[in-house]
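Review form for a predicted model. The reviewer records the input and the model, then writes brief findings.
Reviewer: anonymous (R2)
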Amino acid sequence: MLGPLEIHQPATAAEAAELRARLGDDAAIYAGGSELLLAMKEGLGRWRHLIDVKTVGELHDLREDGGALAIGAAVTHRRLERSPLVGARWPLLRETEAQVANVRVRAVGTLGGNLCFGEPHSDPPTALLVLDARVVLRGPRAERALPLAAFLVGSYETALGGDEVLVRVEVPEPPAGAVGAYLKFGFHERPTVGVAALVVPAGHLVREARLAVGCLGPTPARLPRLEARLAGAALAELERGVDCRDGGFAELDVVSDLHGSAEYKREVAAVLAGRALSACAARARRAA
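Model under review:
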């Protein structure tokens, strides 16, 4: 049972932020509800007030703005999956969004809700990390921007203030010629491991490589040691397959849970990283 609720429908993000500040811990932001309502039904959270941000028009914006993709917090996973703009210029994000949960969840769940819930076993944050995304937060008086890595603080914990709402996610356009891949593995409803890779070719070599792994610990993480090692590598070597086990996985904060032991998840992540890099190299060769 959800219990008695009062639903508030603000017209602006500033009004939503003011409601959060005034209602305090008795209020929760409601958009798609795919995470929030489940938590409430399971008795994991009790709020007397829901602030329905679907009524805030700007949170539904999806547009290119100054070379970056601006994604309103209430944009659904399904809309991102099907957007011609996202598919053409941010294909790694489209590929990731197409793998979120199932089509029913993607049709109602929002990117902003996904990020604000802070679920460790989640797909979008991993891809957004290699895409150098940032979030824009609105308080009662002003906006502030944070890199995604600074916004995701821990398991079910973010840097969102008690008087703020997430307004949009900004994703810079990848470098020219960049190719990406997102791979995941899991036995349960949520992924055990997710790996995102982005490779920028320079002829037959790698000019830049970015890798992030998610679902292993409280937040997704980049692999700077592996990224540095891959700079200058031959694309043909990546396509044949590289061993990524020494790429910094041992230093990651990995949690043993029902999805597997820390050692198991590190091994799966290293294997998926090699496969994602191979997929990137193959895509780069076909695009050449």
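Findings: Residues 133 and 149 are 9 Å apart (CA to CA).
Further findings: The chain has a mean pLDDT of 96.
Recommendation: see findings above.
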